[in-house]
């Protein structure tokens, strides 16, 4: 609780300064709604269901893309990490695809899937797969070699080796990639909604901005920040429940 109270000092201070500056005539901007108006707009958005509905739409696309990226990244990462020759074959392709901005895939994804959650999820998956894939490869390559030797002596199958040896040994690194990808998923989903997809929190912000409803726009923007914080805290709480995981490896040195 003390950590949360200390962490609230800066946000609360900024809100107080924001409210105070609004009352200074020489500094007041029409596009800068005061926090009390933003709060009322947020309550109105929650009561009429627009913000909860947009939140569900954004999370649907973000989590779908995240899960898809995790499935692809972890499986390929384990295979590539265990096979050095395969890594030499696929590395040039990975290096060529990885720098492509995820938003550059919006026209292609839109042409294939049209507007909606699938188009958004594909763009999110493309952005999220790289941290999962690369960190999984690195974690598998950094395993203690004797673990694989033991699995060979025990004559474990490929699946048994993956689930009983490789994944437990590389889990701390894999979790780091998953947490990074989860943060990227929310950012990219909202970006796609702002750019073109008529759904979710990003579209709500753009619709409010175009209608000159700045208090509603700020309400959605601040809610996105709160939502990102909640997702991060929930992911960290889930990580803490994994037995035997080194928490300091996933950014929890507290």
Task: Explain how this protein is built.
This protein is elongated. Helix 7 packs across helix 9 (158-195). It has a single domain (57-250), classed as MetI-like fold. The chain has 254 residues and is mainly α. The mean pLDDT is 83. The relative contact order is 0.13. Helices cover 78% and strands 0% of the residues. It has helices at residues 2-7, 9-22, 35-47, 50-82, 84-97, 106-113, 117-141, 145-153, 158-195, 200-210, 214-240. The chain contains eleven helices and no strands.
Order of helices and strands: HHHHHHHHHHH
Q: What is the mean pLDDT?
A: 83
Query: Can you count the helices?
Result: 11
Taking the sheet with the most strands, its summary is: none
Overall number of strands: 0
Give the overall silhouette: elongated
Q: Classify the beta-strand content into a percent band.
A: under 5%
CATH-scheme architecture: Orthogonal Bundle
What ranges have pLDDT less than 50 throughout 5 or more consecutive residues? Answer: none
CATH superfamily: MetI-like
CATH topology: MetI-like fold
Class inferred from helices and paired strands: mainly alpha
Separation of termini?
A: 13 Å
Please write the CATH class name.
Answer: Mainly Alpha
- Rg over alpha carbons: 22 Å
For the record, the count of structural domains works out to 1
Helix fraction bin: over 70%
SSE map:
Layout: H1 2-7, H2 9-22, H3 35-47, H4 50-82, H5 84-97, H6 106-113, H7 117-141, H8 145-153, H9 158-195, H10 200-210, H11 214-240
Properties at a glance:
single chain, 254 residues, mainly alpha, MetI-like fold, 11 helices, 0% strand, elongated
């Amino acid at each position: 609780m003390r950590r949360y109270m200390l962490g609230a000092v800066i946000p609360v201070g900024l809100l107080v300064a924001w409210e105070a500056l609004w009352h200074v005539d020489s500094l007041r901007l029409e596009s800068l709604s005061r926090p009390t108006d933003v709060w009322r707009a947020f309550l109105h958005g929650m009561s009429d269901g627009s913000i909860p509905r947009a939140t569900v739409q954004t999370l649907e696309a973000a989590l779908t893309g995240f899960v898809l990226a995790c499935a692809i990244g972890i499986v390929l990462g384990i295979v590539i990490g265990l096979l050095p020759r395969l890594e030499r074959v696929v590395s040039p392709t990975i290096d060529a695809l990885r720098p492509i901005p995820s938003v550059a895939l919006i026209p292609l994804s839109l042409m294939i899937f049209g507007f909606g959650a699938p188009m958004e999820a594909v763009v999110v998956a493309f952005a999220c797969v790289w941290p999962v894939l690369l960190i999984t490869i690195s974690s598998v390559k950094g395993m203690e070699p004797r673990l694989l030797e033991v699995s060979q002596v025990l004559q474990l199958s490929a699946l048994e080796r993956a689930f009983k040896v490789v994944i437990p040994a590389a889990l701390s690194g894999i979790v780091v990639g998953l947490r990074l990808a989860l943060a990227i998923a929310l950012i990219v989903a909202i970006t796609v909604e702002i750019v073109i997809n008529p759904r979710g929190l990003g579209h709500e912000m753009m619709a409010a901005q175009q209608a000159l409803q700045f208090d509603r726009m700020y309400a959605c923007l601040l809610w996105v920040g709160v939502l990102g914080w909640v997702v991060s805290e929930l992911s960290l709480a889930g990580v803490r429940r994994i037995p035997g995981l080194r928490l300091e490896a996933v950014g929890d040195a507290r």
